[in-house]
Amino acid sequence: MEVYASLKPLYALLVSLSAVILIGVSRKRPNLRETWTLLAALLKLAIVASMLPLILEGKVVECLLATVAPGLELRLKVDSLGLLFATTASFLWLITSVYSIGYMRALEEHAQTRYYMCFAVALFSATGLAFAANLFTLFVFYEVLTLSTYPLVAHKQTPDALKGARRYLTFLLGTSILFQLPAIIMTYFYAGTLDFSSGGILAGKAPDAIITVMFILFIAGTAKAAIMPLHSWLPAAMVAPTPVSALLHAVAVVKAGVFTVTRVVLYVFGIDLLAGLGLGVVLACLASFTIITASIIALRQDNLKARLAYSTISQLSYIILAVALLTPSGITSGIMHITIHAFGKITLFFAAGAIYVAAHKTQVSELDGIGRRMPFTMGAFTVGALSMIAVPPAAGFVSKWYLLLGAVEAHQILVIIVIITSTLLNAGYYLPIVCAAFFKEGREVPCRGDRLREAPATMVAPLVITASGVLLLFFTSNYLFNMASIVTASVTGGN
Which residues contact 306 (CB under 8 A, 6 or more apart)? Predict the structure, then answer.
């Protein structure tokens, strides 16, 4: 694979850091502060997208940031997998920034400057993680992402918010230091390198028992992926403002978790090594348990954001399950679902925030008839819900289809049963919301001429855009498939 040296990955990072400074110095001028946020998001997206032609040509883009010590380099490497994650995050940062303006102003939230600054740092670290060329670089940005999102979770500064933020920090920082860092050290000791390689770097380098221990440490150290039982930080983080929840669940944090697991599985261990040791089956069992259990818990949640939170836990494990199958269609499904889930879930959280701002409702049991008062919001919610269930023409159907093919390729009948069962459970906790919103009479009867009560346009427009993206990804899924196929071909040898 041809390497193309360029500073573009560095520029993509510097845009976000520059935005932090500009937002900070503009704290007394809200319009200018938010202009910097939007301009940075646009520029970042343009820089990231400009690398797409090179990646589609089969090249990788590299940039050395610093050599910390012999064998420890902060180095960026843009490949198809990293670019897909970074493009998704960059585009949704732009949309979320617009949404945040409407949300924060409508509720007259405090500490808005800190909020936008932390948002920019979070996207800086998410992009750095996406472009990490080795485990050391990935670990550094993984930790920065945790630290930068902690103030966002604690934003309201209420006792509940501070409690949720402490749990968030304890789980994410604690597991990465206790488990992920030792795994990285062991990897360097046995492999002699931390660089990602499409065939893995550990085959034949350590006894099977040691490799098994390392694999367990890596999975346990990536709590951002929310695999049970290391998942409780995610519902606890729902005390954050809705745009932050969207960031956590769709754009940066949880996607960083499943992205890290995908990198480790495909580029540190390699599919042949994991298949030989049966570790792919172990990971698939953990993911399957999480998918079903989280879906059952979601059924019992009346709080809308809590239901969405447990849905996220379940949907994330679709990605883990897909990659754990170690088959071409499975890997392709997991990579595609990173983007597809991002668009669907951010739409759902945007809708939840719009409902809160316009109607001050947070419970599922309060949403009877709200679809007639907020048709754009609930229409978008319906599209996002259909994607989670995997009903065409929502994009979620595409990634779940490839997941089923991956299960067939792996001859895993139990996985097929898990997928079908979870799909029914998804329908069980999403469709009643949609039906109640459009077909039940609400408790409040709006006055004549007051039937439509949507949130501000700066909130409604973003959720309509992301819902449209869910549909567009279905009809243009071949482009997403092509990006995922580049990764799949590289790690499977084209088989």
Answer: 235, 238
For the chain, the domain total comes to 1
| Residue 161: inside a domain | no
Q: Which helix (H) or strand (E) holds 367?
A: none
Residue 354: phi and psi, rounded to 5, are -65, -40
**For the packed helices 80-106 and 112-130, what is the interaxial angle rounded to 10 degrees?**
170
Mention every residue, 6+ apart, whose C-beta is less than 8 A from residue 390.
396, 397, 399, 400, 401, 423, 426
Q: What is the Cα 137 distance to its own chain's centre?
A: 19
Task: Sheet with 72-78: list strands edge to edge.
Answer: 3-5, 60-69, 72-78
Q: What is the dihedral of CA 419, 423, 428, 429, to 10 degrees?
A: 90
Report d(CA 75, CA 73) in Å as an integer: 6
Q: How far apart are the first and last CA of the chain?
A: 17
User: Angle at Cα 196 formed by Cα 404 and Cα 64, nearest 5°?
Assistant: 135
Bond before 229 cis per omega within 30 degrees: yes
Residues 14-57 have pLDDT tens digits of: 999 999 999 999 988 989 999 999 999 999 999 999 999 999 88
Give residue 323's Cα distance to chain centre.
15
Classify residue 428: in a domain, yes or no: yes
Contact (Cβ atoms closer than 8 angstroms) between residue 384 and residue 249: no
360-403 pLDDT per residue, tens:
899 999 999 999 899 999 999 999 999 999 999 999 999 999 99
Q: What's the rounded Cα separation, in Å, for the pair 122 and 114?
A: 12
- As beta bridge partners, residue 63 has 76
Q: Give the whole-angstrom CA distance, residue 2 versus residue 58.
A: 7
3-state secondary structure string across 436-494 = HHHHCCCCCCCCCCCCCCCCCHHHHHHHHHHHHHHHHHHHCHHHHHHHHHHHHHHHHCC
